[in-house]
């Protein structure tokens, strides 16, 4: 359906935060005042955050031409077609260089239009899964090589198989949308920009494991994502994508949104399950695995948003198509989030294997401040810092592990040379102390002692460096979950790479 | 967290037990209803009234201590209403990389606060937040649930003036 003048403006939080709602309203008001007939479509974000508010205009069914960042004084020129433009959106190098599988529809479609969703490949995966047995669905997922996108990288198919084989009267699919890591926003973007893909992925997970009930646990810091997901679930029910009879089949699956309450630790799966059950978000010891005793004591799949939202495309295009991307044991694509002090920040989905430096300097365009890059933190507040001399590290689970870090949820936060790595290391410990659930001692007390020890080092007590290293050892080996266990990553990497920022001499740090 | 009760705040009618029971009844049917109940109470009364704890405990067959334990675990739940507007300022790494620390100090100073909390006139509560998912357009802020990107001090104070 072509319209003489179709205008696309994102409803993504990042676009809104930069004024997209005002621009959309102004376009509508001015068009009405001037008697110009327009069709305004609110889409997800294309992921080029530095161009937001991005306005795309298609005339007479032609390609979408990008304008951005748009300012309020350009409204008339946009309607007249005289505003400066960036050419066809798809040709912008940042977008043209990507391989978009998980984010194929994000930024293109109206996230709350089932027609749009189906026209862009939606529901094809679920239809195919409905023709398969649970065992076949699990096998297909294993073949894709998909690993948990939340950070731990556990093979999704294997987790599903455990739940599939568990015997119980009720099983659950829980989507972990407690995306609390600074530098990451891909979960938020997919929930706001293509929520139906997450719902479809959860329905397929339900078929694979005989689970009939799902929960999306979304952090309260994401009110826009909560609102979009709520509406998307209602739309999915109206169209038979959820309910007693999935697309007319004999399979049932339904789901609801649950809202977190500001506890970072609830991004850890067992603590999330406790929170879902209405308890303090305290970490549980494993075993039992949530796959066997998860939500309300029943076998439960707990998967990240991106893992579940990637399932439909795997079933649409086939597991092998997905597995053909990537390197080593990191198969498929990763939606990488380039954030912080960076010129071209946003979401860049690509096959695993691109060197870190290419992402920072080439694709990200270096720092926003124009100053030299000092360090990047990969994988959120629990991820290690990397210095420019490590920029040849290929982006993959094993490669980052070998380099003393982790890719986590694939957020890259860039810092320029004004960053004080001692302050950042202290912040990492302080954050751990504030957010610790209190269950295990190395995290609860270690983080507090960590802050004090870093203060001692920075006050000139170089002997305290050994103490900090020792403390970090204890936290790494003795903590129940990644909060206490991984806080040493940013702390020790900062200390190792930038001892001068701790006021210590290089010898003392090594 | 460090929120203090604003002394100048006009008195608001305290929620009655029946008001509280209504909220509990609306969410009680869910699996794991406690967080939905607490969110419901806070949405309606802007805090979790002390008087709600025994009522929740009774409805869910929990002890008051268990309910208190849950309420106090989560940063979101307040024991007293916030100021008329709530400004959340992101303190996380991505925002720090673009000067959030300095912005926070400037904004607090602008409103006469030494630390996170509520202004004397009860107009504004400023709270820290750890990530709003706006990491490519920081520093990030949220005013009464609305997101604000590249939020330097002038942009934040201007946005708050519109709210007044």
Describe the model.
- The complex is a heterodimer of chains A (510) and B (164).
- Chain A is of the alpha/beta class.
- Chain A has four domains: 5-91, Glutaredoxin, CATH 3.40.30; 114-323, Rossmann fold (3-Layer(aba) Sandwich), CATH 3.40.50.11540; 326-416, Roll (Ubiquitin-like (UB roll)), CATH 3.10.20; 421-509, NADH-ubiquinone oxidoreductase 51kDa subunit, iron-sulphur binding domain (de novo design (two linked rop proteins)), CATH 1.20.1440.230.
- Helix content of chain A is 41%, strand content 15%.
- In chain A, the strands form four sheets. Chain A has a five-stranded mixed β-sheet. Chain A has a four-stranded mixed β-sheet with strand order 2-1-3-4, covered by helices on one side.
- In chain A, a hairpin with a 6-residue loop joins strand 13 (373-378) and strand 14.
- The longest helix of chain A has 16 residues, at 223-238.
- Chain A is globular and about 75 Å long.
- By secondary structure, chain B is α+β, with helices and mostly antiparallel strands.
- Chain B has two domains: 17-73, no CATH class; 85-163, Glutaredoxin (3-Layer(aba) Sandwich).
- Helices cover 41% and strands 12% of the residues of chain B.
- Chain B has seven helices and five strands, in the order ααααβααββββα.
- Chain B has a five-stranded mixed β-sheet, with helices on one face.
- Chain B is elongated, with a radius of gyration of 18 Å.
- At the A-B interface, helix 1, helix 11, strand 7, strand 11 and strand 15 of A face helix 2, helix 4, helix 5 and strand 5 of B.
């Amino acid at each position: 359906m072509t319209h003489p003048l179709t205008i696309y403006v994102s409803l993504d939080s990042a676009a809104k935060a930069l004024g997209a709602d005002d621009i959309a309203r102004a376009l509508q008001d001015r068009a009405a005042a001037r008697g110009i007939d327009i069709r305004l479509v609110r889409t997800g974000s294309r992921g080029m955050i530095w161009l937001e508010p991005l306005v795309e205009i298609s005339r007479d069914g032609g390609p979408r031409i990008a304008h951005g960042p748009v300012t309020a004084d350009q409204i008339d020129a946009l309607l007249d077609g005289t505003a400066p433009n960036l050419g066809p959106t798809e040709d912008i190098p940042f977008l043209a260089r990507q391989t978009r599988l998980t984010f194929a529809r994000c930024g293109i479609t109206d996230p709350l239009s089932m027609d749009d969703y189906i026209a862009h490949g939606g529901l094809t995966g679920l239809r195919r899964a409905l023709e398969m047995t649970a065992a076949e669905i699990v096998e297909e997922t294993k073949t894709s090589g998909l690993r948990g996108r939340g950070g731990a990288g556990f093979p999704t198919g294997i987790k599903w198989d455990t739940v599939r084989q568990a015997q119980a009267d009720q099983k659950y699919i829980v989507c972990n949308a407690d995306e609390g890591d600074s530098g990451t926003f891909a979960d938020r973007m997919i929930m706001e920009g293509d929520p139906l893909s997450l719902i479809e992925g959860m329905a397929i997970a339900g078929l694979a494991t005989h689970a009939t009930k799902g929960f999306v646990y979304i952090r309260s810091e994401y009110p826009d994502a909560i609102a979009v997901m709520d509406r998307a679930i209602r739309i999915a029910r109206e169209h038979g994508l959820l309910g007693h009879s999935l697309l007319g089949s004999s399979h049932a699956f339904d789901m609801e949104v649950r809202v977190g309450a500001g506890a970072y630790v609830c991004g850890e799966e067992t603590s999330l399950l406790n929170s879902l059950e209405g308890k303090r978000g305290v970490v549980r010891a494993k075993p039992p695995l949530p796959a066997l005793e998860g939500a309300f004591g029943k076998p439960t799949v707990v998967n990240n948003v991106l893992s579940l939202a990637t399932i439909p495309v795997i079933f649409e295009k086939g597991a092998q198509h997905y597995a053909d991307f990537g390197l080593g044991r990191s198969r498929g694509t990763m939606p990488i989030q380039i954030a912080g002090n960076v010129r071209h920040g946003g979401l860049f989905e690509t096959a695993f294997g691109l060197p870190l430096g290419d992402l920072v300097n080439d694709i990200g365009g270096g720092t926003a401040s124009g100053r030299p890059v000092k360090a990047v933190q990969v994988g959120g507040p629990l991820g290690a810092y990397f210095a420019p001399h490590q920029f040849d590290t290929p982006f993959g689970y094993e490669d980052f592990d070998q380099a003393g870090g982790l890719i986590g949820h694939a957020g890259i936060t860039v810092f320029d040379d004004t960053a004080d790595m001692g302050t950042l290391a202290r912040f990492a410990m302080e954050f751990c102390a504030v957010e610790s659930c209190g269950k295990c001692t190395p995290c609860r007390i270690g983080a507090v002692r960590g802050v004090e020890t870093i203060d001692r080092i920075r006050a000139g007590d170089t002997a305290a460096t050994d103490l900090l290293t020792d403390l970090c050892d204890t936290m790494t080996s003795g903590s129940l979950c990644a909060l206490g266990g991984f806080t040493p990553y940013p702390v020790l990497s900062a200390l190792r790479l930038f001892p001068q920022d701790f006021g210590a001499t290089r010898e003392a740090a090594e | 967290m460090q929120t203090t009760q604003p002394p100048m705040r006009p008195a608001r009618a305290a929620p009655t037990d029946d008001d509280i029971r209504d909220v509990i009844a609306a969410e009680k049917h869910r699996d794991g209803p406690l967080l939905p109940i607490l969110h419901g109470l806070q949405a309606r009364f802007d805090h979790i009234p002390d008087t709600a704890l025994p009522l929740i405990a009774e409805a869910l067959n929990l002890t008051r201590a268990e309910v208190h334990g849950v309420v106090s675990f989560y940063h979101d739940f307040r024991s007293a209403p916030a100021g008329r507007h709530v400004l959340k300022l992101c303190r996380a790494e991505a925002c720090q990389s673009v000067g959030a620390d300095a912005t926070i100090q400037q904004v607090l100073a602008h409103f006469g606060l030494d630390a996170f909390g509520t202004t004397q006139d009860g107009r504004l509560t400023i709270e820290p937040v750890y990530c709003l998912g706006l990491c490519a357009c920081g520093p990030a802020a949220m005013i009464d649930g609305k997101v604000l990107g590249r939020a330097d001090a002038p942009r934040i104070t201007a946005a708050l003036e519109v709210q007044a």
